[in-house]
Write a structure and sequence with these properties.
This protein has 160 residues and is of the alpha+beta class. 36% of the residues lie in helices and 35% in strands. The strands form 2 sheets. A 5-stranded antiparallel sheet has the order 6-5-4-3-7, covered by helices on one side. It has a two-stranded antiparallel sheet with strand order 1-2. Strand 5 (109-122) and strand 6 (125-136) form a beta hairpin.
Length: 160
């Protein structure tokens, strides 16, 4: 059962509904988005069992490279989710929020961030089949709404 599941969901041996995927995507975004030099290896180990074989090698390589950077620069990253949505066109979940980067460089830096996560179910087990995280510069609300409609026309708000 995914953490933070709200309401009923449907899961079969190799398929799950949108709500199930959104719940897992939120969990993964929170896990990946809240990293310190002390927990970065724990986070990487925690997520690796959820990676599909198709993306395992490249994603683990990227995660350990980022881990080295965090440790070398003594950086801490935190992520505050603000929206979970479903992209009907791609079948992926988008978790949008704000990332805060803290380090010895002084004032914390805040950046809008989106985790795009593809989740499939294989033998009743959730697997991450796609994972990307990207930043957007801060925009006025009406500009961001217009941008989102152009870039991702199939997005729907989460049902709550």
């Amino acid at each position: 059962v995914p953490p933070d599941l709200k309401g009923k969901t449907k899961i079969a041996q190799n398929k799950a509904d949108r709500r199930y995927q959104e719940s897992w995507a939120l969990f993964f975004a929170l896990l990946l988005g809240n990293v310190t030099p002390r927990n970065v290896e724990f986070v990487a180990q925690g997520i690796e069992s959820y990676l599909s074989p198709e993306i395992y090698q490249s994603l683990m390589k990227d995660m350990y490279e980022q881990a080295k950077t965090l440790k070398r620069n003594n950086l801490a990253v935190s992520f505050e989710p603000r929206e979970v949505s479903w992209n009907e066109k791609t079948g992926r979940v988008l978790v949008r929020g704000q990332t805060t980067l803290r380090g010895s460089f002084g004032k914390a830096q805040n950046v809008a961030k989106t985790y795009e996560i593809g989740i499939e179910v294989r033998n009743y087990y959730p697997l991450i089949t796609y994972l990307d995280a990207y930043e957007k510069k801060a925009r006025k609300k009406d500009q961001e709404k217009n941008y989102d409609q152009q870039a991702e026309p199939q997005l729907e708000p989460q049902d709550n």
